[in-house]
Amino acid sequence: MAEKILEVKNLCTTFRTERGTMRAVDGVSFHINKGEILGVVGESGCGKSVTSQSILRLYDEKRTASYEGDILLEGKSVLSLKEKEMQAIRGYDIAMIFQDALSSLNPVFTIGDQIMETLRIHQNMDKEKAREETIEMLRLVGIPAPDKRVDQYPHELSGGMRQRAMIAIALACHPKVLIADEPTTALDVTIQAQIMELIKKLNEELDMGVMLITHDLAVVAETCSRVVVMYLGQIVEEGDVMDLFDNPLHPYTNGLMRSIPKLDGERQDRLYMIKGMVPLLSQIPKGCRFAPRCPYATDKCRKEMPELKTIEGNQKVRCFRVQEEV
Ligand SMILES: Nc1ncnc2c1ncn2[C@@H]1O[C@H](COP(=O)(O)OP(=O)(O)O)[C@@H](O)[C@H]1O
Ligand SMILES: [Mg+2]
């Protein structure tokens, strides 16, 4: 049996806004095994980032959002921890990298300072040891001439190098889980591929669990073992990558698959588009949330909400049409 490193159980994240409460994540459950890369996909606005920020409890519970359900790190609840205890987990047991490295790096400190600080706080290293380890980290993430780069400021590095530096900072504490939220979206294609290779390599070498959020299914196919498909705050399909790509069950997953560019770079028949857009949280449709955009929706779909059910092996789907076929 694979060992679960992170488990999210029935997570609901509800924002308090001026126009009332809005539930951005609604009953999401999934797990990440030790050493596994789990892909999380879905169009923009489906709740991927809110899910990942909720795992780290980054929203202020007094002002911004409330959480329900549970989040377990190695079987221990994170949602019930006090803020102080949570701080010991953030960036230490669970680290996160974002799309935008420039805004998450501090412009007034050198790259080296920012990694060394993490090492000194979390691992109690002295200055000299921390510097050595920092250079080693920079080498590990493929930054050339790390003994020189260590003393440079973020603006002195290229976009790809900054992203590598951010990964080095995230990995400085040997996290058990790495959350990567669209880590390569801002980079050009060759650099994207290099960063994904790096995440894959580090995942293998350090045996950490990775939650890889991306809207790029081609990246998922190359990198992940399992994948979760989100639509409007819920999981609509989940399964092993191979099964999902061979046989996407949910009409939404199917639509996403049909919009992947072909391998030769040519886009197929002008690229299929799922009709319409992801609705706002203030306009969540009744019944199946995808029904208004679904080519197969029936009256039942527009009235009742299907549950996420196992169809075969590891593959689960939230769709009456598929569930009634088997
Ligand atoms: N701080 C917030 N307050 C209110 N609504 C929010 C907040 N952050 C995100 N949302 C809403 O939550 C939904 C999911 O957003 P997000 O998780 O960022 O989507 P994704 O990462 O999948 O593109 C969106 O409708 C978004 O407008
Ligand atoms: Mg996002």
Task: Walk me through the topology.
Blueprint: E1 4-17, E2 20-33, E3 37-41, H1 48-55, E4 65-73, E5 76-77, H2 83-89, E6 94-97, H3 101-104, H4 111-123, H5 127-140, H6 146-149, H7 159-171, E7 177-181, H8 189-206, E8 209-213, H9 217-223, E9 226-231, E10 234-240, H10 241-246, H11 251-258, H12 299-303, E11 309-312, E12 315-317, H13 320-325
Parallel strand pairs: 3-8, 3-9, 6-7, 7-8
Antiparallel strand pairs: 1-2, 1-4, 4-5, 9-10, 10-12, 11-12
Helix pairs in contact: 4-5, 5-7, 7-8
The structure holds adenosine-5'-diphosphate (ADP) and magnesium ion.
Magnesium ion is lined by residues 48-49, 181.
Protein described:
- The protein has 326 residues and is of the alpha/beta class.
- The chain folds into two domains: 4-93 and 175-278, Rossmann fold (3-Layer(aba) Sandwich), CATH 3.40.50; 107-173, no CATH class.
- The protein has helices at residues 48-55, 83-89, 101-104, 111-123, 127-140, 146-149, 159-171, 189-206, 217-223, 241-246, 251-258, 299-303, 320-325; strands at 4-17, 20-33, 37-41, 65-73, 76-77, 94-97, 177-181, 209-213, 226-231, 234-240, 309-312, 315-317.
- An eight-stranded mixed sheet has the order 6-7-8-3-9-10-12-11, with helices on both faces. A four-stranded antiparallel sheet has the order 2-1-4-5, with helices on one face.
- Strand 9 (226-231) and strand 10 (234-240) form a beta hairpin.
- Helix 4 (111-123) crosses helix 5 and helix 7 packs parallel to helix 8 (189-206).
- The longest helix is centred in the middle third of the chain and has 18 residues, at 189-206.
- 39% of the residues are buried.
- The site of adenosine-5'-diphosphate has 13 residues, from strand 1, strand 2 and helix 1.
